[in-house]
């Protein structure tokens, strides 16, 4: 692990690991059970200055995606939802950095880095999740600005966000794929945040439906231009996928931590459960796959830091996201099995890891879509 991390990143790892164990872990179960936004955890992250990690120095950050992944991994190891607070701040970064004007960058990035602003990214619609090119939310020109109409679902953090980056179609009605991102600020007339979804996992950071009823947006609300907007949206997802993979690594490692503690304290047939060879092989596989996922995620994050873009980054990001989140699901499933009946009880935290892991296989591009990306890059 240290082969990927420099001294600064190891310091980030040590700091976040200590804070996660001492201050975050005691809150994790309650956040999941109540499904209430953890304002105290947001303030803790803000105090520590962790929101700045992936930002360029000119916006108050360290410019390191690898540092960001390390922080997410350590928080996700004890509390998926607290780690998610970082992720939802960072997801808009790629789009704004790639397509934002200097004025847009100066307006939004410093506030995201400090925690004074909260953002969200909205792509998914009732009829199009993975099929981003099939988005129906429509932006039509109105003088110098735009009129936005349509609806979105599953927009995480939108209830708390000061602005949402909304993907909308700007081409003709039958023209697939001509997509742009628009900054829609809270309070914009015609913009409504719908009810909170009751989710199986990721319960502490709410997701909402969004509704746009002929919202007027000034020209400067568009990121990039009409010809490059869709590529900007895809670049945002590529840049953020190592972070999603890091959540999978943290979740898997946390499930391993809980499982080891549990099986070493239980006895059956006159010996510790951890002494059964079958159990030991399960633990070994969990550790092996988690370490493999960690290396893939760190490689992808290091590539972002090195300026890798395009097809090469898409491949690394897809592989790392897919493997890490599939591993998280497999490890969490085996962990529940090793807990036995206790694994399905809310008295123990392991079922929370199981539920959160399922979410990771779906969000930020399903793992089937990640496999499509990998296959297309090697076959087409």
Automatic annotation (TrEMBL):
Query: Does the entry feature the keyword Oxidoreductase, yes or no?
Result: yes
Supply the alphabetized keyword list.
FAD, Flavoprotein, Oxidoreductase
List the EC numbers from the record. 3.13.1.4
* Catalytic activity reported: 3-sulfinopropanoyl-CoA + H2O = propanoyl-CoA + sulfite + H(+)
Q: Where is the Acyl-CoA dehydrogenase/oxidase C-terminal domain?
A: 228-379
Which one of the record's GO molecular function terms can you name? acyl-CoA dehydrogenase activity
Cofactor(s), by name:
FAD
Tell me where in this chain the Acyl-CoA oxidase/dehydrogenase middle domain is found: 120-215
Q: Where is the Acyl-CoA dehydrogenase/oxidase N-terminal domain?
A: 6-116
Instruction: Name the family.
Output: Belongs to the acyl-CoA dehydrogenase family.
* Name this protein carries in UniProt: 3-sulfinopropanoyl-CoA desulfinase
This chain's source organism reads Xanthobacter flavus
């Amino acid at each position: 692990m240290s082969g990927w991390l420099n001294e600064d990143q190891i310091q980030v790892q040590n700091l976040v690991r200590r804070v996660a164990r001492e201050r975050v872990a005691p809150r994790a179960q309650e956040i999941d059970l109540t499904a209430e936004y953890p304002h105290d955890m947001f303030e803790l992250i803000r105090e520590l200055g962790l929101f700045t990690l992936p930002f360029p120095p000119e916006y108050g950050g360290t410019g390191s995606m690898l540092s960001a992944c390390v922080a997410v991994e350590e928080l996700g190891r004890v509390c998926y939802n607290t780690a998610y607070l970082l992720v939802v701040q960072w997801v808009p970064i790629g789009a704004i950095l790639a397509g934002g004007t200097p004025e847009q960058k100066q307006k939004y990035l410093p506030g995201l880095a400090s925690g004074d602003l909260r953002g969200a990214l909205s792509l998914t619609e009732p009829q199009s999740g993975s099929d981003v090119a099939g988005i129906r939310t429509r932006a039509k020109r109105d003088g110098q600005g735009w009129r936005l109409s349509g609806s979105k679902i599953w927009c995480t953090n939108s209830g708390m966000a000061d602005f949402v980056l909304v993907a909308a179609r700007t081409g003709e009605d039958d023209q697939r794929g001509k997509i742009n991102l628009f900054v829609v600020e809270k309070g914009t007339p015609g913009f409504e945040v719908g009810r909170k979804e009751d989710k199986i996992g990721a319960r502490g950071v709410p997701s909402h439906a969004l509704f746009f009823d002929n919202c007027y947006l000034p020209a400067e609300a568009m990121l990039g231009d009409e010809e490059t907007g869709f590529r900007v949206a895809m670049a945002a997802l590529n840049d953020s996928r190592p972070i999603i993979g890091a959540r999978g690594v943290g979740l898997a490692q946390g499930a391993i931590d809980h499982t080891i503690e549990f099986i070493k304290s239980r006895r059956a047939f006159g010996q510790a459960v951890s002494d059964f060879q079958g159990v030991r092989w399960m633990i070994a596989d969990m550790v092996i796959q988690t370490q493999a996922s960690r290396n893939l995620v760190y490689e992808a994050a290091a590539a972002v830091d090195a300026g890798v873009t395009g097809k090469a980054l898409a491949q690394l990001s897809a592989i790392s996201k897919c493997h890490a989140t599939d591993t998280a699901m497999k490890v969490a499933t085996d962990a529940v099995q090793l807990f036995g009946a206790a694994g399905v009880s809310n008295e123990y935290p392991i079922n929370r890891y199981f539920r959160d892991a399922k979410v990771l296989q779906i969000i930020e591009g399903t793992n089937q879509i990640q496999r499509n990306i990998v296959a297309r890059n090697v076959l087409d």
